[in-house]
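Structure request: Fumarate reductase iron-sulfur subunit, Lentzea tibetensis.
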Amino acid sequence: MKNTPKTITMQVTRFRPGEDEAPVVQSYEVPLRKEWAVLDGLNHIKDHLDGTLSYRWSCRMGICGSCGMTVNGKPQLSCATFLTDYAPGPVRVEPLRNFPVIRDLVVDISDFMEKLPKVKPWLIHDGEPPEGEFLQTPREMDEYKKYSMCINCMLCYSACPVYALEPEFLGPAAIALGQRYNLDSRDDGAEDRRDVLASAAGVWACTFVGECSTACPKGVDPAGAIQRYKLTAAVSALKDYLLPRGARR
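Returned structure:
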């Protein structure tokens, strides 16, 4: 049996827009420990080898979504991706694709933050709010629960070939979050979201490659949410065409 290597090479993309002409790859040797995630390797580099390395992280528990990166060509949460899975190495760490790079592994997600409010990802309720608790049955909650698990990690946008080619595309996470509220029994805002979700830059831009759902670390299935809303939008459009205004419900 071969001895397990004690170190692994991490090949990290370095780039300072406005200062560097192009990204470069810098290699670092870090300890290969069973419990170390890719993020632990980056923290070792930052603390002991090169304090100039820039990247995002916060919770280290797969909850905050801030440590998304491209690891050996795939969008991953670096806190939940382990170095031993890439032994003997090297392991290549790059910024998420399809986003402008701010510095090194840090990307600018302003485009998503501008698009997200357009789907009104909050409860919209007609009339007076109910007194006391707004109760739901377990079945009603199951309708939208998986879409509520999104942590805005941007892995789905990095994996999406449509977003790579069509920057106007609303994107997987934003559409899934819109659906999360459309399917909530407490919400009355489906019509308020319709023009955005059913637009050419909304669900109809999606070609159903499905990479967004594959990349999602929380099992949200944005591809499923998009296809489900396509049916909703098509039925709604047909009703608009065939039925008089007062009979569309």
